[in-house]
Amino acid sequence: MAQHNLPSPSRESRSGEYREWTDPYNSFNSLKGLLYRDWMEGILKGEFLPPVEASIDPVYSCNLDCVWCNSHGILKNGSIKGKKMTTKHLLDLCRFLGEWGVKGACFAGGGEPLLHEGCAEATEELAKAGVESAFLTNGINLEGDAAEAIVKYSRWVGVSVDSGSRDNYSKIKNIPPEFFDRVVENLAGIVELRNRSGSKLEVSYKFLIHPDNADQILPAAKLAKEIGVDYIHARPAASENILGGADCALDFPMDIVNEQLSKIFELQDENFKVFGIRHKFSPRMTLKKNFCSCLAAPLLIQLGADGNCYLCVDHRGKPGFIIGRHEPDPKQILEFWGGKDMIDFMEKVDLEKCPRCTFGIYNEIMEKVLVEDRMCMSFP
Ligand code: SF4
Question: What is the DSSP letter of 285?
Answer without folding.
Answer: S
